[in-house]
Design brief:
A hairpin with a 5-residue loop joins strand 10 and strand 11. By secondary structure, the chain is of the alpha+beta class. Strands 2-3-1-5-4-9-10-11 form an eight-stranded mixed sheet. A three-stranded antiparallel sheet has the order 6-7-8, covered by helices on one side. Helix 1 packs antiparallel against helix 2. It has three domains: about 70 residues; about 150 residues, 2-Layer Sandwich (Alpha-Beta Plaits); about 70 residues, Double Stranded RNA Binding Domain (2-Layer Sandwich). The longest helix is centred in the N-terminal third of the chain and has 41 residues. It contains seven helices and eleven strands. It is flat, with a radius of gyration of 23 Å.
Length: about 325
């Protein structure tokens, strides 16, 4: 279609076709890579039929395991067909009630997602970071940059529950803490989202770095409240108030676009939208560190006993199960 001359007069169409072409080229490259491994296995097996050497058998078995691993990854990637799945993502973490305990839990989740970003060779930018008064964080917004970042991270939308012996309790009692995670895609520049300036309340404040380190002596950080929807976005990572306002508006636009998508999805399916209510009975996942150790996803019933692995960013099993279930739904 892109070879047709008349197509190039419609730049919107060209952009959409270019994006689809890039996606298809990715899958062709993946297929060719799988085919190459498969052909290598076939050659090794032919040689083994002639000589029956143990080394050839072991080599073939190794290649078969590699092929299976690659096929499993392709299967998961084939589930990422949503309109915005291949976009960058914004991820917000907000602690629930409970002060220091929940602020600390939010910081643990923040570390977990940073590890996930590193494990998957994505990049991350901190858009806004509000340190807790005594420990942890009051809120954080990050931008995850990389292909299919949103497609994978959308599985993390919802309330996360922690059960542990609190390090802040002198009596060593067990505490339950909550934090909400909200993920939404970075949207294309040409998508039109109507924002009335009269609907906005814009506040400025002094920016501070992670852990409360003072980084700015002027009110350069920006907080924008969209009053009709009560959506609040903040940005403090840029050098000037103007840059922070621009970034905050970009995030607000993405939030409003996501909200509209969810509204349409709700009307179409008559199901709850992706952004779960920040109510402490609707947790999507429980992280139990005491009296036993287990992390369970309540949507897919996947549970993992190796809590250290998960808290170090190994979230693949949860994400893959979520994507498979969503496909069935």
């Amino acid at each position: 279609m892109m070879t047709k001359r008349e197509i190039w007069s419609d730049q919107d169409k060209v952009k959409k076709l270019g994006k689809e072409s890039s996606r298809l080229k990715d899958f062709i490259e993946i297929y060719e890579n799988l085919e190459e491994v498969y052909n290598e296995i076939s050659v090794i097996l032919e040689l083994y039929e002639e000589d029956e050497e143990l080394e050839l058998k072991e080599e073939a078995e190794k290649k078969v395991k590699l092929l299976k691993k690659k096929v499993d990854k392709v299967e998961i990637k084939s589930l990422l067909t949503g309109e915005n799945d291949d976009n960058n993502a914004y991820l917000e973490i907000h602690p629930g009630a409970g002060g220091t305990e929940s602020h600390d839990w939010a910081s643990i989740l923040y570390r977990m997602y940073k590890k996930w970003v590193d494990n998957n060779d994505y990049k991350m930018e901190v858009v806004d970071y509000q340190a807790g008064d005594e420990a942890g964080i009051k809120s954080v917004t990050i931008k995850v940059i990389g292909k299919y970042a949103y497609g994978y991270l959308k599985s993390e939308n919802g309330v996360h529950r922690l059960v542990r012996i609190s390090p802040f309790d002198a009596n060593k009692r067990r505490h339950t803490s909550f934090a909400s995670v909200f993920v939404y895609p970075e949207i294309e520049k040409d998508i039109d989202v109507d924002i009335n300036e009269k609907d906005l309340r814009i506040d400025t404040y002094r920016a501070s770095g992670a852990g409360g380190q003072h980084v700015n002596v002027t009110d350069s950080a920006v907080r924008i409240t969209h009053q009709p929807t009560k959506i609040v976005v903040q940005c403090q990572n840029e050098r000037s108030q103007m840059q922070n306002k621009k970034q905050a508006m970009k995030i607000l636009k993405a939030r409003l676009y996501q909200k509209e998508l969810e509204k349409k999805e709700e009307e179409r399916k008559k199901l709850e939208n992706n952004k779960m209510d920040n109510a402490w009975g609707s947790q999507i996942r429980s992280y139990v560190l005491h009296p036993y150790q287990k992390i369970k996803d309540h949507r897919t019933n996947v549970d993992i006993g190796n809590v250290d692995s998960v808290l170090n960013g190994n979230l693949d099993q949860f994400m893959e199960a979520f994507l498979r279930q969503k496909k069935l739904d």
